Amino acid sequence: VSSVSVLILFFWSLASWNMVVSPEVTVSRGEDAVLNCSFTHPQQQSYSGTITVKWARAPDSVFFSCSVRNESMERPTNCSFPGLKHSLHGDPRRGELSLLIREVQLSDNNEYVCRVENVLFVKDNQ
Predict the structure, then answer these.
(1) Residue 18 belongs to domain with CATH number
(2) What pLDDT digit, counting tens, does each position of 45-91 carry?
(3) Of 36, 43, 81, 126, which residue is 20 to 30 A from 63 by alpha carbon distance?
């Protein structure tokens, strides 16, 4: 059984931020993989604007992006679609930015970067 390892890069150091990612994810070819990424920010609960989640293959090739209004109770419309290769696995309003990769293939073996943006902050997990 072939396996695919996915490395998520992480670097930054702002005292007010907390961002957590999986250091490496390994699954068998054909299985689904979840690349964990989450964040907290001191103004996260009071922020009422849009949160944008971006995933890129290192160094900077964005292949997935979705946005949701933080105060909205509606399900994010552009973040999760059954049957698509990539979907958000979680809710950015709760600091959950994880990516679901369906039916992983050897071509998915790469370094991935999770990014969160809003008007108050932009942060990469490189």
Answers:
(1) 2.60.40.10
(2) 777 778 888 889 876 788 888 888 777 666 666 677 777 899 988 88
(3) 43
